[in-house]
Amino acid sequence: MGARRPAAGDGDLRVKRVDPARLAAFEVLKAVRVDDGYANLLLPTALARHGLTGRDAAFATELASGTIRRQGTYDAVLAACIDRSLRKVETKVLDALRLGAHQLLGMRVPTHAAIDTTVTLVRAKVNQGAAGFCNAVLRKVAAQDLDAWLAQLAPGTGTRDLAIAHSHPAWVVDELRAALGDAAGELPELLAADNVAPRVTLVARPGRATREELPGTPTSYSPFGVALDGGDPSSVPAVAEGRAGVQDEGSQLVALALAASPVEGRDERWVDLCAGPGGKAALLAALAAERGAALTGIELHHHRARLVARAASGPGLAGVVQADGTRAPFADGSVDRILLDAPCSGLGALRRRPEARWRRSARDVAELVPLQRALLAEAVRVLRPGGALLYATCSPVLAETAGVVTATLADRPEVRLEDVREHLPVVPDADGPLPGTVQLWPHRHGTDAMFLALLRKA
Predict the structure, then answer these.
(1) Are residues 104 and 190 in the same domain?
(2) Is residue 9 assigned to a domain?
(3) Would you say 315 is a known binding-site residue?
(4) Which domain holds residue 176?
(5) How is 98-113 classified by DSSP, letter by letter?
(6) Residue 299 assigned to a binding site
(7) Can you spell out the DSSP letters for 284-321?
(8) Does the annotation place 209 within a ligand binding site?
(9) Catalytic option among 81, 134, 344, 394
(10) Is 394 a catalytic residue?
(11) Fewest CB within a 10 Å sphere: which of 23, 90, 180, 452?
C-alpha cells in the first residue's frame, strides 16, 4: 500500500517548518501562563531569540498581545466548537488554538494560512493527533467572522454578554460598572478601550530634558509628555541618557498633582512611599530638584528598589531605602510631601497589562484593601501638619479608591480631603467618586484609569 496522502490542511508532514513569528508568540503565551510573566517584557527576548525584526516582529507582537487581550472572547468561540470543556484540552494545545483564533478573527491572516501554520506548530510542539484536533476546531472557528460569533454568543448588554464580547472576566465588568456610577452607560466604551493597545508615552524630566526634544505628539494634559508615533523609545537620546522616560500620561499627572499642591511652610522633604519601579519617583525627583527639595524613595523589594535608584538618579534624589512602607523609617510628622501610589489590582491598566484581567480575582481586591489602608495610615503618621499627601491607585475599583479614603477619614479626624482638581491641568469629565477626587479613564482621557485623592493633616 502507498503512503497516506496528507489530508487537506495537514500539509507535508516531513518538510513543513514552524513559522518563527508564530513560535515566538506561542512561547510568550506559555511563559505568561506558566511563569506569570508579562507579554510586553517577554516579547523582546523572544523576538531576539528567533531573529525577528520589522514586519515579522510586529506580527509576533500583535499575535501574542492580541491573543492574551481577547482570550475571553476566543475561549467562548472555541468552547462552542469543541464537544468538551476547555479545561480538558491540553494547555499547550489551547494556547495554539487561541493563537489560531486570533489570526482568524482578529487579524487579516488568510484562513488557509492561519489554520495551516497553527496545525504545523501543534504537530511540532505536541503531536500529530493534537494537530488533527486543532485542524478540525479551527475550521469550525473560521466558519463565521467575529461579528457573527458575537451575535450568536453575546447578543445582549448584561454582564455575561459584555464579558464575552469585550474579553473581561464577569467580576471585572461588574466592578467597572460600579466605578462608573451614573455613567455606567459608558461601560461598553470603557471595556472596548481596554482592548486597544496604548501608544507609548514619554515624559521629559524637568531640568534634564524638554518636551520639544522628544519625538511625537504632545500629550493633552501633561506639559512634559509626548505620545510616540512609532519606533523604539530606547533609541530616543534623552531616554537612553535617562533624562526622559516611558510613562503613561495618567502617571505623569499623579506626580504633577502632588508637586503642584500647596504646602504651608517648609517644603524640602519629599517621599514616595511605594516607589517601585520608579517612573513617578523620577519625575518627582526632577521637580523637587528645581525647588531645592529632595525625594526619598521607599520600596519593599530589592530588585524594584534598584530600578527606582536607576530611574530617579541625579539631582533631587536623596536616596532609595529598601523598607516596608507600612513601617516607614521616618519620625512622626516629619515629611512635607508624600506620594502613596498604593499596590492595587491594576484594573486601570488593562490596556498595558492585559494579563492582569486573567490573574486577578475579587479575592485579590479584598486582600489588597487592608494593605492599602495600612500604607495610608502610615503616610498620615509621617506627614507633617500643613504638608500634602496624594493617595493614588491604578485602579478605579471603589473598594480601593473611595473605600480606602473614606475609612481613613473616619479613623483620623485630623485629616481632611482637599480638591486635587485645583492643582491639575484642566482635565474634563474626571470627577472621582468622592468630592474633590479625580478618576481618569482610558475611554475618556486616553490614560490609564488612575485615581487621585489629596489629603492634608490639620
Answers:
(1) no
(2) no
(3) no
(4) 161-194
(5) HHHHHHHHTS---HHH
(6) yes
(7) HHHHHHTTT-EEEEEESSHHHHHHHHHHS-STTEEEEE
(8) no
(9) 394
(10) yes
(11) 90
